[in-house]
Write a structure and sequence with these properties.
The protein has about 200 residues and is of the alpha+beta class. Helix content is about 35%, strand content about 25%. It has helices at about 40-50, 90-100, 105-120, 165-190, and strands at about 10, 15-20, 25-30, 65-70, 70-80, 90, 135-140, 145-150. The longest helix is centred in the last third of the chain and has 23 residues, at about 165-190.
Length: about 200
Amino acid sequence: MLMISDALYLGRGLHKVAYIHPENENLVIKIPFDPKDAELRQELSYRKSRKFRNLDSQLLTKFYGPVETDKGQGYVFERIRNADGTACETLGDYLDAQEAAGWPDKEEVCALLQGFMKQVMDERILTNDTCLINFLLQRNEAGEIRIRIIDNVGSPVKIPLVYYWDHMTVGHIRRYLKRLQRDLQEKYGRDLVLVKS
């Protein structure tokens, strides 16, 4: 059993609390408030289906399985940080800062978001979440940015055929990307062009 001190606390969401792994600072342990949480079951089922289908991803955090801790059953994931070891900012914080500064890097922002949306489709990532705190901007040694998805993946349907039938997956992702674009444009302006029609 792993002992987790309060010094390892990273943050909390609506369903889980996250801690740095006590034996490996490159990992994070997420502990659900309710072990039977539907969102957790959804994510575990989705990740199992991706493993079964041998689908790899550069967007999703890597998942390493369950672990027993003194705070309850936890789940071990890759910890997303910048190449220099600093914490990543959320996509929401990044876009808020761009908006506050008058969009000095608007073309780069649009290119980043377009690339992200293309990669979501290419990697067949299923999510219903448009909450920008679940997307982190990870910078490499050259300062280049990529977006990573850290939470809320999968589908809430009881029989997730969408996990296994590609045409259903594509349809789900198209609807999701349209909703994400709409939400971003409602918040940041209609001229934020993300998906080419």
